[in-house]
């Protein structure tokens, strides 16, 4: 069983990785760093969502090559109707999400931006798309309460779909994850980011 100290270390390493991503001026190089650091955590960290008995055979995440066409720096439309979602989870109780805005991705559609209303709070932007090689439950682009923060603010939020990653429940059904609703579902395929791979 994962200890609180192991989860703390995972969070610190994730925060450090995303800090390095934000500090790197070349998004493609930042993406390389992110892939390497995430793989290191997934393959060997005791808090990895990859089941312990499968880690030795796990080759790393299947991540598409970086495509700058899927990186956006966008204003957040904060004039959106209020909406609250309350999501039951297996480990965190009921997680409240409040919609605080929406971003329009040119040629792709719109994604709602949520505020995760648990202790500490954070922005949350999940994504479900029409790809047939990504996790059917969706992926996360931003989850700042857990460190997945690409930078920016309401005037210019960084939404880089190359960094879309699978939630923990994609690796192990023992996890319960908030998944995208209709406002975070695109009708088109997003062929970048982490794809749904097997454990080999």
Observed structural traits:
200 residues; alpha+beta; five-stranded antiparallel β-sheet
Got a strand count?
Answer: 10
Q: Helix proportion of residues, in percent?
A: 10-25%
Shape: globular
The structure class reads alpha+beta
Query: How much of the sequence is in beta strands?
Result: 25-35%
How would you describe what is shown here?
The chain is α+β, with helices and mostly antiparallel strands. It has one domain (4-195). It is 19% helix and 26% strand. The protein is built from two helices and ten strands, in the order ααββββββββββ. It has helices at residues 4-23, 27-44; strands at 62-63, 71-74, 84-88, 94-105, 109-116, 122-127, 139-143, 152-153, 156-160, 194-195. A five-stranded antiparallel beta sheet has the order 3-4-5-6-7, with no helix packed on it. A hairpin with a 5-residue loop joins β3 and β4 (94-105). The longest helix is centred in the first third of the chain and has 20 residues, at 4-23.
């Amino acid at each position: 069983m994962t200890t609180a100290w192991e989860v703390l270390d995972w969070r610190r390493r994730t925060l450090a990785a995303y800090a390095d991503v934000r500090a790197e001026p070349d998004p493609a190089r930042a993406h390389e760093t992110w892939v390497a650091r995430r793989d290191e955590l997934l393959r060997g960290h005791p808090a990895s969502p990859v089941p312990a008995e499968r880690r030795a055979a796990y080759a790393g995440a299947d991540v598409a090559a970086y495509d700058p066409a899927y990186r956006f720096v966008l204003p957040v439309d904060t004039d959106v109707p209020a909406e609250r979602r309350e999501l039951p989870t297996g480990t965190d109780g009921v997680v409240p999400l409040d919609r605080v805005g929406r971003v329009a991705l040119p040629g792709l559609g719109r994604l709602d931006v949520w505020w995760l209303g648990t202790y500490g709070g954070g922005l949350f932007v999940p994504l479900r798309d029409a790809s047939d090689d990504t996790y059917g439950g969706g992926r996360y682009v931003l989850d700042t309460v857990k460190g997945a923060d690409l930078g920016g603010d309401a005037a210019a939020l960084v939404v880089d779909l190359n960094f879309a990653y699978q939630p923990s429940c994609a690796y192990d059904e023992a996890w319960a994850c908030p998944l995208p609703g209709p406002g975070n579902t695109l009708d088109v395929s997003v062929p970048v980011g982490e794809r749904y791979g097997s454990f080999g």
